[in-house]
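Entry for glycine complex. Fields follow.
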Amino acid sequence: MHTEGSDGVPKSAVLIIGSGGREHAIAWKAAQSSKVAAVYAAPGNGGVPREEKCENVPISLDALSQQAGQERLIDFARQADVRLTIVGPEAPLTAGIVDRFRASGLAVVGPNKAAARLEGSKVFAKSFMEKYGVRTPRSRSFSDYKDALLYTAEHFQREQGKTPLVLKADGLAAGKGVIIARQYDEAAAGLGSFMQDALLGDAGKTVVLEEFVPGKEVSILAAVSVSPDSPGTIAPFLSARDHKRRFEGAQGPNTGGMGAIAPVPDFSPLVQKDFQTAILEPTLRGMEQEGLDYRGFIFFGLMVKDERCYLLEYNVRLGDPETQALVPLMDFDLTELCFAMLDNTLRDFPLNWKAGSVCAPVAVAQGYPGAYSKGDRIDINQAEFSQTNALLFIAGAEAKGETLFTAGGRVLAVSASGTDSEDAWEQAYRALGAVSFEGMDYRRDIGRE
Ligand code: GLY
């Protein structure tokens, strides 16, 4: 059943799976659509229900990565007459949520389980890249610890310690599966923890050892419509850049992302062309030739060196916090884009973008990415915040009544639009000045690294 609004436009319900800032941003954007009556987020977070039309569905993300939880959500989607589901994080995708929704006759955006291996297995992804000529740093994969150690020793001997080696756990590791080892001892310790001590469980039993390519990272998110029976399309979004290190100047430990910008000023037309021919086109050819069913979002994690793009990884979803930086620039209905991906009309979809830039710094809790404090009240000076061009996207916070309390390491992002990157930066940090919680911290160099 679709309800009809006073404008005569039929309206339907949309379901978003996930609990982060990315999902809050997707929910906000979906709710802007005149064709959407209700937006549900499972499990969502404290920020989602603050948006008009939006509410949370309390099924945990762990449950949604297992069959029983997925089936509960399918029951909910049927009862709530959900017309479109968008999957945010990778774990439910690699656990086959798309296959289950489609088998139940529900429209869902995301790769099926087989296609989700492009993120779920680094070994699969690297052999796909090599098979189809996608430019990627050279690598070898190992399931035997001693062989991996021997290869590592040879690498550091050959390079005389000048070039690091990148260790990647084969399976999903929630951001803990990559080590850039600068010396043999560091690499050997990493291999031991992955392959012998099973620090990451089964995810680290097989590893990819990859040549290190220095350069600047760029994230290209894209909409994909590839199904076994028809020619496919990949439509790239504006470029974005995450800032993964915890501290300013790209120092300190890796995090889930300390802020993002879009578009990226140094992703020049020349580099875009290189991305198209060296990465996007062979990826599309490969997906078609492998007969993948991929009607969902993809994220190309690139390293750009000397105006050439190298693909470091595929993620089979939108990026977080890149999505928070991109949604304010979307000059199209995101739910309509999703339907175009599903019915194979993506090629004709008007993927228009607003002019200007977005700067989206992330505020984190004290201690993050180590053990961090929780339960601190978040104060938002609405009068001051509303003087800026910023949106507030909540990640790790829960609501008690009208008040938000911190509940995760990455607590929130402000996504500020500006006429250019400088203006966006000014707006973003003015907006962050209107938000406070005990121990709140953030990097001040998002877009200036
Ligand atoms: N921004 C990195 C990620 O979403 O994995």
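NOTE: The longest helix spans residues 269-289.
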